[in-house]
Design goal:
Layout: H1 2-28, E1 33-40, E2 54-61, E3 74-78, H2 98-108, E4 115-119, E5 132-133, E6 137-138, H3 139-154, E7 164-169, H4 171-182, E8 189-193, H5 202-206, H6 211-224, H7 229-244, H8 249-264, H9 284-298, H10 301-310, E9 317-323, H11 329-344, E10 350-354, H12 362-377
Parallel strand pairs: 3-4, 3-7, 7-8, 8-9, 9-10
Antiparallel strand pairs: 1-2, 2-4, 5-6
Helix pairs in contact: 2-12, 7-8, 8-9
Length: 382
């Protein structure tokens, strides 16, 4: 009888240990969730180049999102030029998978739980520089209003600027920095990865307005002259696709130039595609104004920082980072130049220089630098 009782107690203890072990495993192995949403963005409707107003979001929901009493801060991540959003979620950069990476950082205690949104910004022109333009749509408003309002309306967010962060890579890094400086009422933190930033000579060094590119564009305008608008639309799309899909970097940058110009210099008084270039023969005043608009696209940081400081609002955290061996020297110089302007104005920020190039170490930088820094800078639910 005694032996039977002892055996029963041991069995009960064993069952209890197994139950506790199962409970612990189920808690620690909880995973976040990655899903896709599609919605109609009012800010993109009615644009002249026919870019769709229906857009897609990749949404990461942290493991504790299943607790319906909890709300979470949100990180908005902006893709680089000509990059589909899946490149930042599906392993394209050194095997970086957003869900697995964020889950690992949470489990290690390096990052706190947050929602992450990667909006689509890709269309047939490759991108819109996160600018408002009648040609491709109001992409600044799309991010700042449409995406944020949709996310706040459909997920359990903390709907405050203190709980929203903005980050991006390449042209997305430029967009993140500009939008955060312009809208500190909507975002409190920014992390710009390898952003395209001009110093005083940036436009010249990037080579976007080379004589060869200007000659090619002038030749296209002459070929399209006299065509119906429908024919011009087809020729223009074919031209852009042939450039952006070219294996030649030089040819690809012809497409980048046109996309940049559509964002910075739209002119509805011109024939389709309504883009103004500083071509030879323009009046001196018009030429100078166009060049100023092209310069201020990725440049004009004196004015941009002055306008930010004049708004009287601060950002909790500003990070500019790039790879030490980034293949675009003008980009490295631009990051250091903007950092210097911030220091001169007493604007707290971090300038981080990592190993690698523009993309070559991006995956590890996303996981071990961006995710912990932003998740810990944002306001969380008490």
């Amino acid at each position: 009888m005694l032996v039977h009782a002892i055996g029963y107690r041991l069995s009960a203890i064993g069952y209890w240990n197994i139950a506790v072990l199962f409970l612990l495993c189920s808690c620690t192995s909880r995973q976040g969730k990655l899903e896709s949403r599609q919605f109609e963005a009012p800010s993109l409707a009615g644009n002249r180049l026919g870019v769709s107003a229906w857009q897609q979001l990749a949404v990461y929901l942290p493991p504790s999102y299943q607790d319906r009493a909890r709300r979470f801060p949100v990180l908005y991540f902006l893709p680089n030029f000509d990059n589909p959003l899946w490149r930042y979620t599906g392993g394209a950069y050194q095997g970086f998978h957003l869900r697995e990476a964020m889950d690992r950082q949470i489990k290690r205690g390096a990052a706190r739980e947050m929602i992450i949104i990667v909006p689509n910004t890709l269309h047939f022109l490759g991108g819109s520089c996160y600018r408002n333009s009648p040609l491709t749509g109001h992409w600044e408003d799309y991010i700042v209003k449409d995406v944020v309002d949709y996310v706040d309306g459909h997920f359990r967010t903390i709907p405050l600027a203190a709980a929203r962060g903005l980050a991006g890579h390449g042209m997305g890094g430029t967009g993140a920095l500009e939008l955060a400086l312009k809208h500190p009422d909507r975002f409190s933190c920014v992390y710009a990865m390898s952003p395209a930033l001009f110093d005083q000579n940036g436009l010249k060094e990037i080579g976007l307005l080379s004589d060869q590119q200007m000659r090619h564009w002038q030749a296209n305008l002459e070929k399209w002259q006299g065509l119906t608008e429908a024919s011009r639309r087809k020729r223009f799309r074919d031209f852009i696709q042939s450039r952006l899909n070219s294996p030649s970097r030089e040819v690809f940058w012809e497409g980048l130039l046109v996309s940049y110009a559509a964002a910075m210099a739209p002119d509805l008084a011109l024939p389709y595609p309504h883009i103004a270039f500083p071509l030879p023969g323009l009046p001196a005043g018009s030429q100078a104004e166009l060049l100023r608009r092209y310069e201020n696209g990725f440049g004009g940081w004196d004015d941009k920082l002055a306008q930010f400081l004049a708004r009287g609002r601060s950002l909790k955290a500003i990070t500019i980072e790039y790879g030490r061996d980034d293949e675009y020297p003008w980009l490295r110089r631009g990051a250091n130049y903007v950092s210097g302007l911030m220091r001169a104005r007493g604007l707290p920020h971090v300038l981080a220089v990592h190993a690698g190039g523009h993309d070559s170490t991006l995956g590890p930088r996303l996981e071990t630098a961006l995710l912990p820094a932003m998740s810990n800078a944002l306001r969380h639910q008490p």
